[in-house]
Write a structure and sequence with these properties.
Layout lengths: L24 E6 H18 L3 E6 L1 H9 L6 E5 H9 L9 E6 L1 E6 L10 H10 L3 E4 L6 H13 L2 H5 L2 E4 L2 H9 L5 E5 H4 L5 E6 L8 E7 L6 H12 L1 H9 L3 E2 L2
Parallel strand pairs: 1-2, 1-3, 6-7, 6-8
Antiparallel strand pairs: 3-10, 4-10, 4-11, 5-8, 5-9
Length: 254
């Protein structure tokens, strides 16, 4: 059975059956990989009978929760964020595994015309002509927010965008604002656009305007289910797990 926490997530095929634990397997994940890991997790739960407890947040919010004493079994966040936790001995040494890279894309409502974003000038026009732009609040400490701010700066429209931006607590929440009509266009990781109903992914932002964000996973040093957490990591990087990660709009690292 899967226990839904703040949000549900991930693991899966390709590992030997494990003994079910009385304590739930606590998995803390970023919004970028949430949808992919959720699919893997459901399969993992069916195979092994574990109860899964998930928290979805930005690297910043997950780090804060761990610093406040929460004890996840598995942590997935930006590679830099996970490395920082390793240095604090909050991740089991040697369990850091690179999982994927996320890329930014543009989303509009499903029935709206798709703007031209095929080159730098076209993307600049699309964002400049939009009445309202939605993206993740930079104050959350999310990797996508830093990447979006960088894109706007490279396009030279930071000041203009600031006047008409509405923020979401996560990338998915920002994309939801397009679905609900609160924004004309959203900038988010492609993996946070694809699961949202009522919107479409117009395309990816050109590589010369963005730097793909690397995400990694590791076993929490103070968790109660280290064996299952390790098995979960192996499921995510297994060939079948990689297919799910790729289908979710991410670039698997394995």
């Amino acid at each position: 059975m899967v226990k839904w926490g703040w949000a549900l997530l991930a693991t899966a095929a390709g590992c030997a059956p494990l003994a079910a634990n009385a304590a739930p397997l606590k998995v803390y994940v970023s919004g970028a990989m949430a949808h992919a890991i959720q699919q893997i997790a459901e399969d993992f739960a069916r195979q092994h009978g574990d109860t899964l407890d998930f928290v979805v947040g930005t690297t910043g919010t997950i780090t804060d929760r761990i610093h406040k004493g929460e004890k996840p079994d598995l942590v997935e966040m930006t590679s830099a964020g996970l490395s920082a936790l390793e240095k604090e001995n909050l991740i089991v040494p040697g369990t850091h595994v690179e999982l994927s890279r996320a890329v930014l894309g543009i989303a509009v409502k499903s029935d709206a015309p798709a703007p031209d974003i095929s080159n730098r000038d076209a993307l600049k026009r699309a964002l400049s002509s939009a009445r309202t732009i939605a993206f993740i609040d930079p104050k959350t400490g999310g990797q996508a927010a830093a990447g979006i701010v960088h894109v706007l700066d490279r396009l030279g429209i930071t000041a203009d965008a600031a006047k008409k931006t509405v923020y979401g607590a996560t990338g998915a929440a920002a994309v939801e604002k397009v679905a609900s009509g609160q924004a004309d266009i959203a900038v988010a990781f492609a993996s946070e656009v694809l699961p949202i109903k009522g919107v479409k992914l117009v395309g990816l932002i050109q590589p010369n305007l963005q730097d793909p964000a690397p995400f990694a996973g590791g076993v929490g040093a103070n968790g109660s289910n280290p064996q299952d957490a390790k098995a979960l990591l192996q499921a995510i990087i297994s060939p079948e797990g990689a297919k799910i990660v790729r289908a979710a709009g991410l670039e698997p690292s394995h």
